[in-house]
């Protein structure tokens, strides 16, 4: 990955610190952009009470920088969730799950009053779908779900060797042009065997921070 993209991710991650209210518990997502956020949070850790993590990888990283990690069941909802995305539109619809943590990410999104998404500008698109859509499935239903997904015009590919934190499989659906993200998310959620669809549209991000070559755009 180029230093240019890392600098953009870092700018978006740094800008997300401004959304933290002192002394609160925050939700933290997964991925390389979020890793920059966690590094920054480490220096800012006295301002947060604790974090709720979306994945085992993020839990380990948060603890390594000295941030306490709580189970979501131990807190009464969250004021703020910070996470990255694989693709984002200016309507703040997202494709997520490239890092395989989509189920934890969707649960924390549902629990959070505000979802601030941090991306570099290469991830901003007019129409979602160039990035293959991750769909987490119960392992025994993998081929059943793949056949159903193919009826939507996509080409599901099993992400072999990937077992999610919840013990499930992931299908990456290539060649979709997602014209109506909330409708597709709703439909795919009805397929028996689907655990989580990597479309975040029924509940989009509330704020999109886009790291650019010169600063951060706020959408
Ligand atoms: C993980 C995710 C990540 O947010 C997404 O993959 C973006 O990752 P990165 O910041 O490394 O590009 O959804 O499941």
Quickly name the level 1 CATH class of the largest domain. Alpha Beta
Proportion of residues in helical segments: 25-40%
User: Can you tell me the CATH architecture of the largest domain?
Assistant: 3-Layer(aba) Sandwich
Unreliable stretches (pLDDT < 50, length at least 5) are none
What is the beta-strand fraction? 25-35%
Large-scale geometry: globular
Instruction: Fill in the CATH topology of the largest domain.
Output: Rossmann fold
Number of strands: 14
Q: Oligomerization state of this entry?
A: single chain
Largest sheet: 7 strands, mixed
Task: Quickly list its features.
single chain, globular, Rossmann fold, binds ribulose-5-phosphate, alpha/beta, Alpha-Beta Plaits, 6 helices
Question: How would you sum up this structure, described in words?
Answer:
The protein is of the alpha/beta class and 219 residues long. It folds into two domains: 3-124 and 203-218, Rossmann fold, CATH 3.40.50.1360; 133-198, Alpha-Beta Plaits (2-Layer Sandwich). Helix content is 29%, strand content 28%. The chain is built from six helices and 14 strands. The strands form three sheets. The chain has a seven-stranded mixed sheet, sandwiched between helices. A four-stranded antiparallel sheet has the order 9-10-8-11. β5 and β6 (94-95) form a beta hairpin. α1 (3-16) packs across α2 (32-43). It starts with a helix and ends with a strand. The chain binds ribulose-5-phosphate. Ribulose-5-phosphate binds at residues 29-33, 83-86, 96-102, 105.
